[in-house]
Write a structure and sequence with these properties.
Blueprint (H helix, E strand, L loop, with lengths): L17 E14 L2 E14 L2 E6 L6 H8 L7 E6 L2 E2 L5 H11 E4 L11 H11 L7 H11 L15 H13 L5 E5 L7 H15 L4 E5 L3 H4 L4 E6 L2 E7 L7
Parallel strand pairs: 3-8, 3-9, 6-7, 7-8
Antiparallel strand pairs: 1-2, 1-4, 4-5, 9-10
């Protein structure tokens, strides 16, 4: 289990141990009579302890790549490995269990259940993963506090602002203490200061032998990451250390 991300003494260095590996991955979709490649021949390795930002214009394939990494879609060809296991050989039940227990998602839209409270929304992944009911409240409160909205735990999310809702969604993604955190524009609805704080939290968690992959347009956050990739027309066309984010 994670310790609190603010405890720098518990942060491990980046390792050479791959968590995610993609080998010549292609994803095609059908549009009418046409077959369109939205992800093309991607080779990518994400290590434990590593944070990766993916940049690119709208329609470049960033979100489609994130879906493949997160098992939300399957490649048309190529291989995706998670912690050494080839996902193409894994039954759907195994994919679902892996996704629930080991991957945390933050989407552009918060996708919350409006009539439930913030705490109830964050608790849902714990229920799906089979975490004991008695263990849930403390973990829910911990992560709501970590994203700065602990006092709003009992408020229905329909009564929260856009930024507050996004922070609930981030807490929900983290509450199962996943090995892999995937985020699609996680700070888009947050003010600059809160966005920086949330991104520091995510990057810090990745340093604890987890991994973080973030799709973002916000160059203000990019230098916090270990690596930066750029996509264009479905291809990874550049990969740099964050000190020189793809020539930015």
């Amino acid at each position: 289990m994670w310790s609190d991300a603010s405890d720098a003494g518990d942060r491990g260095p980046m390792t050479s141990e791959p968590l995610v590996e993609m080998r010549r991955v292609v994803r095609r979709i059908t549009a009418g009579s046409d077959s369109i490649a939205i992800v093309r021949d991607v080779d990518l390795t994400v290590l434990r302890g590593q944070s990766l930002a993916i940049l690119g214009a709208s329609g470049s394939g960033k979100s489609s790549l994130l879906e493949l990494i997160g098992t939300l879609s399957r490649p048309t060809s190529g291989r995706v490995l998670f912690d050494g296991a080839d996902l193409s050989a894994m039954p759907e039940r195994g994919i679902l269990a892996l996704r629930r227990r080991r991957i945390g998602f933050v989407f552009q839209s918060a996708n919350l259940i409006d009539h439930l409270t913030a705490a109830a929304n964050v608790a849902l992944p714990l229920a799906y993963a089979g975490v004991a009911r008695s263990a849930r409240p403390a973990r829910v409160r911990h992560w709501l506090d970590r994203v700065g909205i602990g006092p709003l735990a009992s408020r229905p999310v329909a009564r929260l602002s856009g930024g507050e809702r996004q922070r609930v969604a981030i807490a929900r993604a983290l509450v199962n203490e996943p090995d892999l955190i995937l985020a699609d524009e996680p700070t888009g609805s947050l003010d600059q200061a809160t966005g920086q704080e949330i991104m520091r939290l995510l990057v810090g968690l990745a340093q604890q032998r987890r991994a973080l992959v973030v799709v973002t347009h916000d160059m203000a956050h990019v230098r916090q990451f270990d690596r930066v990739a750029r996509m264009d027309l479905g291809r990874l066309i550049a990969m740099d250390h964050a000190a020189d984010p793809c020539g930015a």
